[in-house]
Amino acid sequence: MRTFVRPFTALSLAVCAFALLPICCAAFAQEPQVVDGMAAIVNGDVITFSQVRQLSAPREKLLRSQFTGQELENKLQEVRKLALKDLIDRRLIIQAFKKESYQIPDHIVDQRVHDIIRENFGGDRNTFIKTLEAQSYSLGEFKEKELERIMVQAMRSHNVKTNMIASPTKIEDYYRKHRDEFTSKEEIKLRMIMVSGQKDTGNAQAQKALAEEVLGKLASGGEFEQVAQIYSEDSTKDNGGDWGWIGRNTLAAPLEKFAFNMPVGRISSIIDYAGNYYIIKVEDKRGGTTKSLAEARADIEKKLIQDEAQQIQERWVAGLRKKAYIRTF
Length: 329
Known about the structure:
This protein is α+β, with helices and mostly antiparallel strands. It contains twelve helices and seven strands.
């Protein structure tokens, strides 16, 4: 038997980097099941329906709060299908680990358990044990699950080249095609006065005259906030027409065009839109700037390397699936 440490010198780093899921959500998130059975067979190893439900339970809980009826059932079937696929892939990876006669030293698993007790239970081992007992788990069963997680993480890490680099050409091409990713969200701090046109009652002229009077008061030095509190007829009246910081696609298109093209501090002319009259003021602007290629290069390189690593892992697992006997029920 070969120890897993020697061929995988980065194992300790992989284990430390492995995301710790809250113990009560990851290890024990499961719903009571009345009926259990085989969900799949993977080279002779059985995956049960209860294992699928255990993995999908957190996502199912969220779906039940968002959907109902047939839409909920369709979503539940989809998430359970994905959970089963994940369990099959994990089993294939563990089988590949064992086939290579690798081993995880006991002290690594013990350290993993120690870290969980320290981070999730404040170092209180008794509380940890009682939590296991309340969930009908033995310490041995919990260690076995953690061992399998370490196996999967380490095998995935092993199948990714650690010296991968992204070529300058790929980085530049990604930057050209995804400039939006490096452009900060454009926002304006807006105040607005709305005067209803009331065209359906024949008072359009009077209301237009009122809007012109309001604009005149602002042009004469009237404070926008105070004028809005007196004359505006929309829901922001009491706040002096204050819309706060808003992004694009918040206002109707004609109003947005005026607002986002106005200089800071400028008061607009009267905007006639949808039967009402609007006067707007942009108090400040932020965002809308794009990082240069030099500024974005490190982030792009990291993403490209991660994407390539993911593709390598997927091809490797696909190869395991192709050689395996897998039957789902």
